[in-house]
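We store chain and fold; thus.
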Amino acid sequence: MSYAIYLATIFCIYAIAGVSLNLVVGYAGLLSITHAAFFGIGAYATAILATKFGADFFLAVLVGIGITAAISWCAGIIMSRLGGDYYVLGTVSFNYVVINIMVNWDGLTNGPLGIPGIPKPSLFGFSFSSNILFLVLSVLFLAAVYAVSYWITTSSFGRVIKAIREDEEAVRVFGYRTISYKLAIFMISAAMAALAGGLFASFITFIDPTSFNVMESVFMLAIVIVGGFGNIKGSLIGAFLLVLIPELLRFVGFSADIAAYMRQAVYGLALVLFMLYRPKGLIGEYKL
């Protein structure tokens, strides 16, 4: 039972990351491979404020969201000057920059040793220390992110974003500042990823830079690809499949080291097969 609760919580965390990434990749048509960086910034902000300054979880997460939004705005301005393959390379490079800061800024991040002892959330004296209560909190956050994402994608703002995805030049002709729209959705997506990172840090109670590398960004992208571009329901399906299937490898009899490599192989194989035979994903509405 506790194992199932653990998997359900991890699913909620990565579903938040997948839904938020889909806003950028599926709806805006921007192939971003840096989502783990924003996920990590949110996690580290939450962990540092909670362990070094004794901040409440919810306050720490809010601050982490604000910091991540500000950083994503700066990164978005720089990457808005890039296009096509150069944009993708720019997002990958940004992920490496963030990881290197996490590894080398020992005084703040504790370097490669990571940050242990991250406390569980509490609200007005009520603690979410048990796994089942943390799962309830994660489900509530996932529902909130899904609702906000649904509202965004069905609003006039979302329709402009999708129009930019289809033909940016035509949208620009009608007087829309397309860069501003893309920057806004990029910031919103990063802020949601920071929320997922804060939940991850508090649930695992320990973080280090290896949890936020480029392979983690590829995993989040795989969630979107498998579920489907331009459909937030698809991100839930993708998160469910890619969180659950690798866990089944634990019961095949592989050692822990081999299972870790097999997990990456599963993601890579899923990406290749879906891009070849199902480029829109399971229930996607758009093909990159």
